[in-house]
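Q: Fold this one first, please.
A: Sequence and structure below.
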Amino acid sequence: MGMGAHDHLSVRAYGASHGSHDHDHFQVLVGLEGVLELEVAGRGQRIAAGDGCVVPPGERHDFESRTGARCLVLDSRAAGWARVNRTPTQATQALARYLAEACTRSLPRAQTLGPVLLLESWAPSTPVPSPRPRRPIDWSALADWARSRWAQADIEVADLASRVHLSPAQFAARCRNEQGQSTQQWLRNLQLDQAEALRARGASVAEAARLSGYRSPSALTAALRRRAR
């Protein structure tokens, strides 16, 4: 499964204090108690008990829990986590609860075996095969298509993958190999480039946000501020 020395399991408590960061590895979260509000690359979700989320490498994520939450957290460099795009199975939820208890009791075998077991229980049983022959992706045309759609509807990775006749997992691998970044990073940079170009031409923040696919002017302002750091 390609697990490495960096793979680390822990149980973390989250509170009302807002946090924001990114990592150069996958971060896997499974809810144990409470509700964690999470926003990854501008898209929000709630992680309650039994819910799960895989944050790809390089994706900035904001998090807080107004009433408090606990999650099992795995920091991992295993490439197999790129295949996980569904909610945890019942088996995964049960395993997560056991691993959380093992972490609390500092059982060493949880750190040794837990990461690979968590991935095996959650990931599809068979990898998605690569297309043969490999179809080239016209990244410039795909970017033009995305820019033309943002004002009307949200664009998901699945939409981009379908546009170039690939599965989301295949598209994610191609994006990282050919563009040197994750699919969300590619989309985020494309949105920011468009927003900056619109602002340079005199568009208001609200208009630039609408035309470049941001949920609100404040979301665009925050994204522009992060890029400028």
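Q: Good. Now the second chain.
A: Here it is, same layout.
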Amino acid sequence: MDLEPESQPAVPDVVPAAPVRLLLVDDEPGLRTAVQTYLEDEGFQVTTAVDGEDGWTKAQELLPDLVISDVMMPRLDGYGLLRKLRADERLGGTPVIFLTAKGMTADRIEGFQAGCDDYIPKPFDPDELVARVHNVVRRQERLLQEAARFADADIGQMAKQITEIRSLLASGGGGKKPVNAVQHEFTPREASVLQLVAEGMMNKEIARRLETSIRNVEKYVSRLFTKTGTASRTELVRYALEHGLVD
């Protein structure tokens, strides 16, 4: 005789990971459709573009996790698209895989020198493409995790130091009078990063606030170190407060 199963303890809901967002840029309709179908069957979220100009427009809208692009395309080729991506504050750290019929060593070297993360000559095995996509995505995730772990390591201590610096300067114990911030040639984005660093935010939080990548935030912080002659976030905050560079 069948017995009704005993009630089981509720299992907490597990929030599924968001699918990896890919931007596929290729001017060959047949290949574009075939690759999109294959990648979507593997669980990726794929948006397509018909050439570099279309890819650049859609990249700005989508902010993809990875771009897969042909090299030889009308209007804007893969190298031109890559240059635009690398120059953009929000997209500069986006991994790029080139697909191309060119298989010569010189062409591969040109692709890597231009800043691509991988290079697959056509024709290619779809399973190899998927494996390479997974590899680039995992590598990017490891980099972001390491950056976030490093940035957040001393967040409590950093906040305490900033509070102490502000209190010291407010009480007149800083030893310096604020100087005019015009003496420092900061870009608008560098100034924004400096303000957020002074508010105690770490790189991950700043990246989220400014809608950019952690890699780009690290680049701006490094530039601020150079321009202010400082070597740590604590020194940078003290310098900014002493010289009236932040609120």
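Q: Anything worth noting on the second one?
A: DSSP finds ten helices and five strands in the chain.
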